């Protein structure tokens, strides 16, 4: 860091055999071939499929299934430092679950966060709370009644499961198709119904500056 997106390439995709879900890897290093964690659907989900390598995903050979003692909501789960973080279905809680001991380590409420399709993305049901990981750590993206449905960004102290800092943006969350973080900067796409889809909104948590991009700019 700092890093900024300058262009978006064609990318690649993999057909998982189901239309909606979560595909999670514990490392962004291309040289490190770790396990892949998959959750099918948008919730409520109560099971994680574990593949030892990305190649096992290609052949559809999971190594094991991890049952969860609670239900996850949406597609915004993340795997970070041997833990699964997810939005607990029907609540404003973020749950931290250890992927080796299979224990719930802690849960953290997001004050005022909408759930049960109060402020979802355009891309699907149960996407009220979206978790993201970047070079700086763990983030939660959501909206509240106090923010009038505008997107809220919160940095989470993952070690102590505490709220670190929160930023309120000016962009309505229900108008966004998805969002992600890079080096503390949020990038949000326009509606998934807009084809092709572009990055339309950028918010820098370091400076508080925001940008509304023209269609096709990125």
Automatic annotation (TrEMBL):
Assigned GO CC terms: extracellular space
Alphabetical keyword list: Disulfide bond, Secreted
A single GO BP: signal transduction
Compartment(s) of residence: Secreted
Keyword Cell inner membrane belongs to the record: no
Cysteine-cysteine disulfides: 1-183
InterPro entries, sorted: Olfac-like_dom, Olfactomedin-like_domain
Pfam families in the cross-refs: OLF
The protein's name in its UniProt record: Olfactomedin-like domain-containing protein
């Amino acid at each position: 860091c700092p890093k900024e997106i300058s262009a978006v390439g064609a990318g690649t995709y993999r057909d998982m055999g189901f239309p909606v879900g979560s595909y999670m890897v514990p490392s962004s290093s291309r040289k490190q071939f770790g396990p892949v964690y998959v959750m099918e659907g948008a919730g409520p989900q109560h099971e994680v499929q574990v593949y030892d390598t990305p190649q096992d995903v290609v052949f559809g050979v999971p190594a094991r299934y991890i049952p969860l003692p609670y239900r996850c909501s949406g597609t915004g789960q993340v795997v970070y430092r041997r833990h699964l973080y997810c939005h607990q279905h029907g609540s404003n809680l973020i749950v931290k679950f250890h992927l080796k001991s299979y224990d719930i380590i802690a849960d953290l409420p997001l004050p005022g966060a909408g759930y049960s399709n109060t402020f979802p993305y355009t891309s699907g049901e149960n996407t009220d709370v979206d978790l993201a990981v970047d070079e700086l750590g763990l983030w939660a993206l959501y909206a509240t009644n106090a923010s009038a449905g505008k997107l809220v960004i919160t940095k989470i102290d993952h070690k102590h499961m505490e709220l670190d800092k929160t930023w309120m943006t000016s962009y309505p969350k229900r108008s966004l198709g998805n969002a992600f973080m890079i080096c503390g900067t949020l990038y949000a796409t326009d509606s998934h119904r807009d084809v092709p889809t572009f990055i339309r909104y950028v918010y820098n948590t370091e400076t508080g500056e925001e940008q509304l991009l023209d269609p096709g700019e990125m």
